[in-house]
Every structure is written in structure tokens, then in C-alpha cells.
Here is the input.
Amino acid sequence: MQYQLLIMAHSSTAEKKTNRLTLYIVVAMLLGILVGHFVNTQSSPEFIKAFAPKIKLLATVFLRMVQMIIAPLVFATLVVGIAKLGDLKTVGRVGGKAMIWFISASLLSLTLGLILVTLTKPGVGVNIANADLEGAKDLMGKTKEFSVDKFVEHVVPRSVIEAMATNEILQLVVFSIFFGVALTTIGKKGESIIHALDALTHVVLKMVSYVMNLAPIGVFGAMAGVIAIKGLGILATYAYYIGSFYLGLTVLWIILLLVGYAILKHRLFVLLKRLSSPMTIAFNTASSEAVFPKLVEEMERFGCNNKIVSFTLPLGYSFNLDGSMMYMTFASMFIAQAYNLTAITGNIGTQIAMLLVFMLTSKGIAGVPRASLVVVLATGSMFGIPPEGIGLVLAIDTFCDMGRSMTNVLGNALATAAVSKWENALENK
Here is the structure.
């Protein structure tokens, strides 16, 4: 009885801290918008040009501190998760259920984005002269045209150290699965390694609690920097495009939540409460990767079994970025509409082919700002979409990235909770 009271007290304290953090982040976001708007309207272009990069350093520091945790956390949690599942049959069963969700959600996101951008036509009549050509050139330097060779090279790690250094999550997942399966098959000889990695997970999650205290500062810097450069007026210029995309996200959310309710029933509302802090951070930093460590923590507090969270969530960050995948079809079709590329906009076969290619090229995409645009740029060239067209969406990409990052977090949380439920591994906390 006393032990249960201690657990309840700890849970209550953790929940209060989460609620406070969410409040601080919202306040920081509003302050960032106010400061950014003041600088944008009251300062000289020279001052704005100097101010924005400096204030954005606050966000850069926060994101880099989170990114330094990603590699050890993905490796440790995934290996321990596979080891705790016990045998290859269980690994295959859980992995199979997770992949069914991931593939279904990916197809839903891509198809929904394609349908809505075709219906709303946000690119028709857009002034191509507004394209950010300099920004497009910067992105061109980060990508190459898609090919099977390059795709395989992206998936299979040449070195696990290199994959960790560059935070290539998909390559880390591939290595971790091999390592975890091998560790499981050697039996007692691997127990000491499992215990060590389990301890490493707890250490890293403790680091997460320290880093997350800096989230409001990072959010303030991100918002102030973006608004200072672009101003609130950019939202009016691209209001229809942004509104069409967020309409798509809203429809996707409704479908995901209905499916979530069918599986979790009333516990869905408990999950959404748990996700308030991670989704707020993802929205304001425009990075779903920034909340991966926090999401691991919150899913376990929700009641998902540790071994399911450790196995499913890292996979989700490689295969289940729902918001990013919707944006890929949305952005590519928007550019095609703006350039009046009837070979794409008027050909459903080409659109389906592009959708299927996105299914491949999106896997392993980093959950960081503008990563989706790199994939759009790499894949779009296959279908005759001009690379400089990316400049049309660069100006407001941050505002769209906020929504798609938050959607990525929701999609992965629902997938993890669903697999836990299907495996009868969801505690009622």
C-alpha cells in the first residue's frame, strides 16, 4: 500500500512538471512572436539581419543538446526492447503489427495530401517571382536525384559510428535490430550487455529531464528569429496555402484519432493529455526529433510496456512520419500547379507513381526542420518538377513544419499505444 502511494505521488509530481513546462513553452512562444514582430517592424534591415541569427542560437543550442541524446537513446532502447521481447517470434510479431500500422498510416497521409491539394489547388495563380531562389540553391546542395543505389546506401550503414555521428536514424535502426537479434540469440552471455544498455537508457532519460528545462528558451529563440525575418505579413501572403495544408492535417488528425479511439477507447484522452508537452515542443521548434526522448518517457508513463516503447517508437521515427509524408505530396503538387505542369497535375497515373516513390524516399527522413523539402527536391526532379520551385514554399516552410512535426508525434504515439494494446501490454495508469 505504501509503495503504491509513493508511485502515485511520483506520478502526480511528474504530471505537474509536465503541465508547467507546457505553460512555459506557450508563454515563450507568445513572447517570441511579440519580440520578433517588434524587431521586424521597428528595426532597420541591417539590424534584423544581425539579430535573427543570434537569437536563433537559443533554438540551435536546445536542438543540438537534444540531438546529442538521440543516437545513444535509439540504440539502447531498441536493442533492449528486442532483447526484452524474448525471442525472434515475438520480435517478428510485434514488428509486423507495427509495420502494418506504419504502412497504412503512410499511404493514408500521402493519399489524403494528394486529394486535398488537388481539390483546393493552392498553387494555381501563384506568382512564381516570389520564389526564394537563393534558399532553393542552398537546398539543392544537400540532395541528389533519387536512385535505387543511393536509396540502398541511405538505408544500410557503412559504419555505426558514422550513423551515430550524423544522426541517421534509419541506419541506426538497421544496426540496432541486427545487434539486438544477435544479443537475444546468445542467451545468458548477453545478459550483462542488456543490463548495461538498460542502465544507459535510464541515464539518457535523466539527461532528457535536464535538457527539456531549456525548451522554453529554445522556443523563444526559434519564434523570435523567424518572425523577425519574415514578419507576420508572410502569413497573409501564403494564407490560402497554409490554410489548405492545415485543413489536410485536421482531416488526418480526425481519422487518426477516430482509429485511436476505436482501439484505446476513453484512454485516448489520457494519452492526448500526456502528449500535450511533446506536441507543443514539436510545434514550436518545428522538429519531431526534438521530442523523441521526451516521448519515450511520456509513453511509458501512459502505461505502454517499456519493451514495446523501446522497439516500436524508434521504428516509427524511421517509417511513420505522417505529417511529413502528407507535406511531400502537398508541396510537390503545389509547385506543379504553380508552374502549370499539366503532365503531373492532369495525369493521375503520374501522381500515383510519385506517391509510391515518396513512400520509399521518405523512409529514414530526419525529423528536423526542412528535411521534408530535401526529399521533395530529390524526388520531384524524377517527375520534371523544377528544383527552383522549392523556393516558392521556403518562405513559409517553418510555419507548415510546425504542424507536420506535431502530427508526426501524434502518429508515432498512437502507433506505439495501439501495438501495446494489441500485445496486451498496456497498463491502466
Remarks:
- The CA atoms of residues 242 and 399 lie 8 Å apart.
- Residues 2-422 form a domain with the Proton glutamate symport protein fold (CATH 1.10.3860.10).
- Confidence is low (pLDDT under 50) at residues 1-11.
- The chain has one domain: 2-422.
